[in-house]
Amino acid sequence: MAKVRSVDRVAEALVAHGMGGRSRELPESTRTAAEAGAALGCEVGQIVKSLVFRVPTTDAALLVLASGSTRVDVGKLSAIVGEPVEQASGAFVRERTGFAIGGVAPVGLVAPVTTYIERGVLAWDRFWAAAGSPRTVFDATPDELIAATGGDVVDVAE
After folding, report:
1. Is the dihedral of CA 81, 143, 44, 106 positive or negative?
2. Which of 14, 78, 110, 132 has its CA 20 to 30 A from that of 25?
3. What backbone phi and psi angles, to 5 degrees, belong to 75?
């Protein structure tokens, strides 16, 4: 059986959530929020970055979706989770999400991951998120992102 490419997993997930045809590949890297904003001609805040954290006591993965202009306060995230969390390693991110850092999408993950959406994302009518590679993105609204990820909206901004 052939391995499904990460961008194809995202495309399938987008179709399943009524957002098919929204993914696009860009000629420039969108690995960072600043690169994505420049490539798309939008504000950095309109880029949703997907940050993966690890709960050391349980080895659980957490996905935090935050505005590109927001820094996540790990202390606030730990308080919400109820135990310490740490930034995940690249190997952990790939194992738990199926994506490399810089291309982690909020949908199309290889396994369910507890997802939190930083409240700042809701400030935008439409934003862009990674679509499975450092050069692919898709657009969505806050309501679409919440519905597609099942994420809880939280305040974890510094």
Report:
1. positive
2. 110
3. -65, -45
**Rounded CA gap, 130 and 99, in Å?**
10
Cα dist. 30→9, 97, 113 in Å? 18, 18, 23
Cα–Cα distance, 34 to 105 (Å, whole number): 17
CA gap 132, 99 in Å, rounded = 6
> Whose structure tokens read 């957002």?
19
Rounded mean pLDDT for each run of 10 residues along the chain, 158 residues in total: 78 95 87 87 94 97 96 97 97 96 94 96 94 93 96 97
Burial of 92 (0-12, 13-18, 19+ CB in 10 A): middle
Q: Structure tokens of 93? A: 């991110």
Maximum alpha-carbon separation in the chain: 45
Residues 6+ apart with CB under 8 A from 108: 6, 9, 10, 11, 12, 13, 14, 98, 132
Domain 6-154 CATH class label: alpha beta
Q: Where are the domains of the chain?
A: 6-154
pLDDT at 3 (0 to 100): 60
